[in-house]
Amino acid sequence: MTHLYDLLAAVADGVDPGPFALLRRDGVDHVDLFTGPVDVAERLADLPLPEGGPGPRTLALVPYRQIAERGFDCVDDGVPLEYLTVTGHATLPLADLLAALPTAPVVCADAAFDVDDDEYARVVDRVLAEEIGRGAGANFVIHRTLHGTVQGAPLSAALAALGRLLRDERGAYWTFLVHTGTRTLVGASPERHVSVDDGLVMMNPISGTFRHTGATAGRDALLRFLHDPKEVEELYMVLDEELKMMAGVAEHGGQVVGPYLKEMAHLAHTEYLLAGRGTRDVREVLRETMFAPTVTGSPMQNACRVIARHERTGRRYYSGVLALLGRDAEGRQTLDAPILIRTAEISPTGRLRVPVGATLVRHSTAAGEVAETHAKAAGVLAALGLGPQASTDGPYPPVRWADDPEVRAVLAARNAPLARFWLDQRGPGATVLPGAAGRRALVVDGEDTFTGMLAHQLRALGLTVDVRPWHAPGSAAGYDLLVVGPGPGDPGAVDDPKMAALRTLLTARLDAGLPTLAVCLGHQLLSGLLGLPLHRRAAPYQGLQREVSLFGVPRRVGFYSTFTARAGTDRIGSPYGPVELARDPADGSVHALRGASFAGVQFHPESVLSRDGLAVLAELLGQLLARPALTAGGGPVGG
Fold this sequence. Notes:
Layout: H1 4-12, E1 20-25, E2 30-35, E3 38-41, E4 55-62, E5 81-85, E6 88-93, H2 94-100, E7 108-113, H3 117-130, E8 139-150, H4 154-168, E9 174-179, E10 184-189, E11 192-197, E12 200-203, E13 206-211, H5 219-227, H6 229-249, E14 255-263, E15 267-277, H7 282-288, E16 297-298, H8 300-311, E17 321-327, E18 333-338, E19 343-346, E20 351-360, H9 366-383, H10 405-413, H11 420-423, E21 440-445, H12 450-460, E22 464-469, E23 481-484, H13 497-512, E24 516-519, H14 521-529, E25 534-550, E26 553-565, E27 571-572, E28 579-583, E29 590-594, E30 598-601, H15 613-624
Helix pairs in contact: 3-9, 4-9, 5-10, 6-12, 13-14
């Protein structure tokens, strides 16, 4: 059934019209209608993308449980990866669709959150204390779900809700309804997760939430929000995490554009745009970017563990994606995938679910995060008759504060302290370090894909780089540099397999006197091997930018750490020779160290927060690699 009016007539008669999807993309005045059969796939790689002319081929509903494809933890609720094979496609003028959709009020009963406000506040406090406070990560998204029952015909109610979202919501990346026969999803997602078009991979991290009740946000309150350190740091952290993802799917990583202000009916967000060139199959791009840190946290792998530990229920489609796969006029693959947030799921019997979450960071308060979940759900709940519509007081169309000169200036100023490496286009060879060409580096990942960004910076300095996980690092023979990278966890845990494996790697390299660089967790473990005591900070340094003195030179760098080594002097002796330390004058925290064949940094030189990160790396590598290159067998060239 491909004709809109036939489809709507069937719904009005109480007949299921078969699977279909209606979606409107941001900034267009039409809606796409897709029809076709629905099937279930086990893996993203199984989604069909047949050859043929240009256009959409497959619309997939990707549940959160697919994160298991990456080997990450989740509560497996068995929700399927459904996909609609597009056999019919029509383009409908928005005005015509709005005139045809049902307008009867949506009525829902027995609506309540599965986790009430008080319990959600307690969960927030636990995550802040037990996870962020103990080094498990920088930020985590914990969700809860409003349950209820739709009165009357569920599909008619979903179509009416779609009409209200199309009329009343603004700023959505996709506004959509997808009906598979087993479920109906209706929502207005503000956030593109990932898209691919003409080989250009784009991601769109959105974070920071300004709540307002009027048709137009108050300017002074908005400016206070834009200056709020919590909101600024929250966006920086998800920007870093999505840059990690771009490092894996774009050949030269992602270039940062923005930030921008996204204004919606009940709230406003801040956002960046990331872009980079890639050649991967779009299904691989989907797999490697499961799922957005804006709905999970960072570092990603440990965020999934934290989610499973504190939520204890499956997420169904919340924080997954809708994914439209197709081909362009030249036959190249295309992808457009918004995140499944601000979305209601309705069963054929009328059972309603509206999931919503908040991003918890070190500055979070329980009351603030409770309020944020209510604000984020407000648009969908209003469309379902469970909350007030946004106020229509004030000018129409509403004032766009994104065009206000002061708002634009405040947003632009956010980039001043950031690393230009990720903001500027770079010509080939522009940052190559003398003597680095032809040298090889092995980066060992401690479960934080910051290592992908680190690899891009090392390559930009001229090295050939391999990245391997801590549990399968392989041999370091033949590598001119071993980099023991970052990751979550307590470096003092003697029985932790990861800590033991990384200590073994470091010890072997130190004993051999071969060039070694340790970053964050790696630095903490190296410090311990050198005899320095480790301490847990009273306040976590998660997503914190500081200017520190590194061996007499002031450097602005970004920290993601809860633990630190401390020392009372600037030089110590060690089993591996004398060690020079760059310490905090206030408490002796060791920000960096260096010896004859090794160096360590507590901060992340690869982070977007490390304005001087590339310069620091270049200086340390210039010292570590000031010796002959190694052959594949491990000996020096010509030796």
